[in-house]
Design goal:
Helices cover 20% and strands 26% of the residues. By secondary structure, it is an alpha+beta fold. The chain has one domain.
Length: 82
């Protein structure tokens, strides 16, 4: 008999700074980050980036920094979740 288990996890990040529009998703980014598949989409909404799109970098305590789309960065900055 075979069983299938689906595991879903949620991670809470606490950001102390967001650098808006500090990165550009381009051919260099894709080549440099080819092995890190999670860096081709927003860390919050999971929307895939398109070539030439500006990205924001969110710095986190005790966890990995996250790459965000500008809409999610604006949302976090407006809420004051930083």
């Amino acid at each position: 008999m075979q069983y299938t288990v689906t595991k879903t996890t949620n991670t809470t990040y606490k950001f102390y700074h967001i650098e808006k529009e500090s990165l550009t998703y381009n051919e260099w980014w894709i080549k440099a980050r080819a092995k890190q598949r999670k860096l081709n989409k927003c860390g919050k909404c999971k929307k895939p980036f398109i070539i030439g799109e500006k990205m924001s970098l969110a710095f986190s305590h005790k966890s990995l920094n996250q790459v965000l789309c500008n809409d999610c960065a604006d949302e976090l900055l407006e809420k004051g979740d930083i």
